[in-house]
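User: Run a structure prediction on this.
Assistant: Running it now.
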Amino acid sequence: MDLEERIDYHFHNKELLTEALTHSSYANERKSQHVKYNERLEFLGDAVLSIVVSDYIFKNCPELPEGELTKLRAVLVCEKSLFDFAKQIDLGSYLNLSRGERNNGGAERPSILSDAFEALIAAIYIDGGMEPAAKHILNFVIPAIKSSKKKQVKDYKTTLQEIIQKNPGERLQYVLVSETGPDHNKHFVFEVHLNSNVIGKGGGRSKKEAEQQAAREALELMGY
């Protein structure tokens, strides 16, 4: 199957696609031909990827505070994730590699495939703009987020409750400490008490989020 069919995007400028798929080893084998390779596109693709992922999770994961958003973005744009995305479209089979690099397994190397995936993002962005680039990225990112959420079946409050229940007689209580800001932009702070002791504190834009963050801090302090 043609790569353009796999990614559901057809290039106006086919040279951009060729450049995105060309590794520096291939260009070095053909120095006299001045072949363009994908390192500059990779640089731009990294930036486009970051803004698209940041925008999506900011809008679609309102329950996550800034620190958790940062962690989620890091997981989604890391080499391992990009390598997985590249394998989904069999990107390695389309790469222009030197004979030596291909013989040494370059078409399956995570660093090469993840870089090429970023270069492909940039090529789409230059050729068609942000909309098709974002569509391409989210085709991979949205299923990855859903998969990640399925793995996180338990929330922090539930996990903390299950741990405390192992000790009969212990009692958890969530206490509202403060409520600030106008109605459209409230900020709540909760403490979680174990009997009479404060074991965690957290804030958020809703009471539920603040309680979750308090439970998360408690779990961290307990070593979970």
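The longest strand covers residues 172-180.
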